[in-house]
Design a protein that fits this description.
It is a single chain. Helix content is about 55%, strand content about 10%. With about 210 residues, it is an alpha/beta fold. The protein is built from 9 helices and 5 strands. The chain has helices spanning about 15-25, 25-40, 60-65, 80-95, 100-110, 115-130, 140-160, 160-175, 190-195, and strands at about 5, 45-50, 75, 180-185, 200-205. The termini are close together. The protein has a 5-stranded mixed β-sheet, with helices on both faces. Helix 1 (about 15-25) crosses helix 2.
């Protein structure tokens, strides 16, 4: 049995100016996204829940019935997408490297980090042997560990909202274009806060 818990936003979303400043989004696109949402020409929904609750199965079907604003199109967005894009960049750097030391140097230079050895330790051997070819289809222990290490130990330690800012920038572009956004992996409080700051709805499946 599917049970829905919808969290109503009792606080007002941020103003476009406040949102742009907090999440480093372009002000013109941010204003357009807020305007679209205020006119019900676009909408944002987040669906969360325990493992097996149906976030990625029942969730999209629910969204198709609810997110009918604007052009009716729904972009399925993930906070984890930005993590995987950057891990893919690291995989590409390792594939082109001549040695582990060379890989570390390339990661530090091109990914703008002080010490690239931890992420290189996780990925290097499996990338070089072909066990990990990309960050999106790989389901190995090393690929999962790489997402955790890069997502948390590197980027979130630099800025707690690092991934939230990346995702919100993608969201406002979609909303400004008159399409809807569905997010199904909001887990951290700051991720949920960003959705409320944009005036989105939080739905929990149990």
């Amino acid at each position: 049995m599917l049970i829905l818990f919808i969290e109503k936003v009792f606080t007002m979303p941020l103003t476009p100016q406040e949102f742009s400043q907090k999440y480093n989004t372009p002000i013109a696109i941010t204003e357009k996204a807020f305007d679209r949402m205020s006119k019900k020409e676009a909408a944002l929904m987040s669906i969360s829940g325990r493992i097996g609750a149906g976030k990625d199965t029942s969730g999209p079907r629910l969204a198709q019935r609810v997110l009918t604003h604007g052009d009716g199109q729904i972009r399925h967005e993930f906070f984890a997408r930005a993590v995987r894009f950057e891990v893919q960049q690291i995989i590409d750097l390792i594939q082109k490297s001549q040695s582990k030391e060379d890989a570390v140097a390339k990661i530090e230079e091109q990914m703008n980090v002080i010490d690239g050895s931890s992420i290189a330790d996780v990925l290097y051997d499996d990338v070089k042997t072909g066990l990990v070819l990309d960050a999106f289809s790989a389901r190995t222990l090393s690929s999962r560990r790489a997402n955790q290490v890069w997502g948390t130990e590197y980027r979130r330690s630099q800025d707690e909202n690092y991934w939230v800012k990346k995702t919100m920038n993608d969201c406002i572009i979609t909303l400004a274009n008159g399409s809807n956004v569905l997010i199904t992996d909001a887990r951290f409080p700051n991720e949920c806060d960003s959705i409320k700051d944009l005036g989105g709805a939080l739905v929990r499946l149990d």
